[in-house]
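Recall the central idea of this unit: under ordinary conditions, the amino acid sequence of a chain determines the structure it adopts. In this exercise we apply that idea directly, starting from the sequence alone.
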Amino acid sequence: QVNADRAFTFHRGMKTLDKIMRNSGVAGLWRGNGAALMRVVPYSSVVFCTFDITEQRLVEGLGREKDVYSRLAAGAVAGLTATTITYPFDLIRARMAAHWSLTPRYSGYFSGLKEIVQTEGRGALFLGLKPTLLGIVPYAGLSFAMFETSKAKATAAMGLHSDSQLSFLTRAALGGFSGVIAQTVTYPLHVVRRRMQVSGSSTPVYSSVAQALTEIYKREGICAGWFKGLSL
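Accordingly, the structure predicted from this sequence is:
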């Protein structure tokens, strides 16, 4: 994702996995996972809480029933809010995960955040935030809208009284399908975000999201550039 000079295939992805294990051991595959966990708890809490509150306020304010449009709007607001609040942890996770040497790039998560502020400035904690927000609005909106709407339709089709009566496997399948569609649609912005996060503010690789997408397209193409690593 972050290296424009390395073409991606699933086979090369497996070779990369093997190289990381040889360089850093099995633990190297989880490098940056602590930061991801520190992010995912507040992110999930905020996104689900904000979704319910926003959708309820929307339907009450507009005097209408919950539908795909209220879910789309509420999901977008929830994703945008949660992403902005927890973004620095996503940045430090990306930098640590993309660092392949025997020793981690930073000695710890909070010391890493402190070092980034000292060497690159506070703004560096939010490098790549713009493409992230551009991507999270359709991603969260689509995933929530598709999941909640498909649950409602499945509930009606099965003659159930509430979507809480849907089986675990049905809910898992609907959630997985919704996530795959939303991730695929917004994936090019995900690639841009990771490259901006890893490059650092002192040597930015792109000046804007539009310039990044254009440059990646010209140099690497659509499948090999915009959607690099999508299968993984």
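The mean pLDDT is 89.
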